[in-house]
Write a structure and sequence with these properties.
The protein is α/β, with parallel strands linked by helices. The chain is about 45% helix and about 15% strand. It has eight helices and seven strands, in the order βαβαβαβαβαβαααβ. Strand 2, helix 2 and strand 3 form a beta-alpha-beta unit. Helix 3 runs parallel beside helix 4 and helix 4 packs parallel to helix 5. The longest helix is centred in the middle third of the chain and has 31 residues. It is globular, with a radius of gyration of 18 Å.
């Protein structure tokens, strides 16, 4: 099976719900041992318990270098290897530029950019050692967004952070592809409007500001801009992450895969 992840170990951040949780499920279904991490300890523990054997949870603040070191040390001690890192944890500030505070901007970048930067730096040594012992190498998947490719109205902080993730991914991909001490692929995924708490928060805010008369009407407004006529589902994104985690993408690095139902084609 081309998506077979037996004997591989994956770490998924922001895995208490949404895309992160479904990604953990998909990787587990493909045979991987999965570590779910999230700052919401109760949520990620519940998710891991429901997934069953071969899955465990750990509390994790991705903005903390000490937390990252602790999490990677835990993976090395308990699983002995790390084949797949999915940097999924993220936050969104949805405010007009002139209403976005410096604290908003810095907090967004701390989670969305610094979390990815620190995570890759802490994980790469273990992933290199893992890659040396396997023919398929290791894989890092960073979650960006379509708002890291095109301008997002009232998303200045979020767009800036996701654009940074997009090019950080490419820069690290080049360096690691040339490394002689173990091959690691690094790619990014760019979801469009997706039915998650994060994805629908903009609709709720549109209702609060009177832009849409109701949540249902706001959802329909978004659908009207999607050529495929529907919101993305978490499985749409998780399936692409599974592809990038597997040998099916073994000659891909520095790529950006857009999962948006055609939204950015217009």
């Amino acid at each position: 099976m081309i998506f077979d992840l037996n004997d591989r170990v994956a770490l998924v951040t922001g895995a208490a719900n949404g895309i992160g949780r479904r990604t953990a499920e998909r990787l587990h279904e493909a045979g991987a041992r999965v570590i779910l991490s999230d700052v919401m300890e109760s949520g990620v523990t519940k998710a891991a318990t429901q997934l069953g054997n071969g899955v465990r949870a750990i509390r994790h603040d991705v903005t903390s270098e000490e937390d990252w070191k602790r999490v990677i040390a835990s993976v090395e001690q308990n699983e002995g290897r790390l084949d797949i890192l999915v940097n999924n944890a993220g936050i969104m500030v949805n405010r007009p530029f002139m209403e976005t505070t410096l604290d908003d901007f810095r907090r967004t970048h701390a989670v969305n950019v610094e979390g990815v930067f620190i995570g890759m730096q802490c994980a790469v040594p273990l992933m290199k050692r893992t890659a040396q012992s396997t023919p398929h190498g290791s894989s890092i998947i960073n979650l960006s967004s379509i708002w890291g490719q095109v301008a997002g109205p009232t998303h200045s902080a979020y767009s800036a952070s996701k654009g940074a993730v997009r090019l950080l991914t490419k820069a690290v991909a080049v360096e690691l592809a040339r490394s002689r001490s173990g091959k690691i692929r690094v790619n990014s995924v760019h979801p469009g409007p997706t039915e998650t708490d994060l994805g629908t928060s903009a609709v709720h805010q549109a209702v609060e500001k009177g832009v849409a008369p109701s949540f249902e009407a706001g959802v329909d407004m978004v659908k009207a801009h999607l050529p495929m006529g529907r919101w993305g589902q978490v499985d749409d994104v998780a399936s692409v992450i599974l592809f990038l985690s597997s040998d099916a993408s073994k000659f891909m690095t520095g790529a950006e895969l857009t999962v948006d139902g055609g939204y950015t084609l217009q």
